[in-house]
Amino acid sequence: MTTNGGYRPVFCTIVPPHILDHLATHEDQALADSALRTLQHDSAQRTRRRVTAVRTAAVAAVTPAPGTAQPHRTIYDAGHRTDLPGTEVRAEGSEPGQDAGVNRAYAGLGATFDLYLKAYARDSIDGDGLPLNASVHYDVDYDNAFWNGEQMVFGDGDGQIFTDFTSSVDVIGHELTHGVTQYTANLEYYGQSGALNESVSDVFGSLIKQYSLGQTADQADWLIGEGLLAPGVHGVALRSMKAPGTAYDDPRLGKDPQPATMQHYVRTSRDNGGVHINSGIPNHAFYLVATALGGNAWEKAGQIWYDVLTGGELASDADFADFAKLTVAAAKARYQDGAETKAVLGAWAQVGVPTA
Predict the structure, then answer these.
(1) Which of 162, 183, 204 delimits the end of a domain?
(2) Which of 52, 152, 217, 317 has the most neighbouring CB atoms within 10 Å?
(3) What pTM, to 2 d.p., does this model score?
């Protein structure tokens, strides 16, 4: 097992390559071109991150004094170019402007900051007040949003399949949580550890949405990217934690390939070993824990997952079983052998991941 002595920033996108691959072969040339440009851009960015990654010491979370931690947000307009960050258009504390994408990005950064601070006493992404920066209107018809190791970036979508990527607060929370993982467990972005990296982002992305809406586990939709798909697309979101494999089934997108259990685990060399596909398994485990416990999912289920992510025992190359065992240990440490531990054990058993 490898340790987490320093992290390698990775290029993490919300739309997985298998969706864009499908779109790139579409008979509508404009649609295919948008998908192909996005794929080419994302591939080049991933290569650049691997080549230029700099070892940086992880920052330990420092519990802020009550009332002292505040977000430091800056939103930029990339002007449909790829030079980052672009022109500053909104700073912390300034009033909303006319650009809805700018306002949504600002609010989404704030919602993410609030969940981590108020639920887990974490001061921003690094635990030490890291400024939160984001660029909107990136590139032309860019069908993705990403965390590049330093900031958030949002495309406007192509208007036919995807809408503006600032439209889903869970997407914003998902991508920023890649930053939290970067500063904590530093999960390697390949195979099961990469799927855990994606799943952790889905988990906290969903919790950020639930927290901002005041929803209980039973009230939540447990969808990732709800609102991103344009009218006419046969689907509700990019992923479903409640029912992996059911988020979309569209001739242009293909069918959602996510499994809910290890029985249907997908072995592939694509997408860094299926990180966006097999994340459905730990996603579903979290959903089962949260709904079994009821109430606000960020309070107990989320706390257990956060304890594992930040506790220092999660190896960067951890597999599903490693993660599952640590969630059981974290549940016992906080809640002894109560309902919380039983819910965790039951959830992993249901998805077919061993905990012993």
Answers:
(1) 183
(2) 152
(3) 0.90
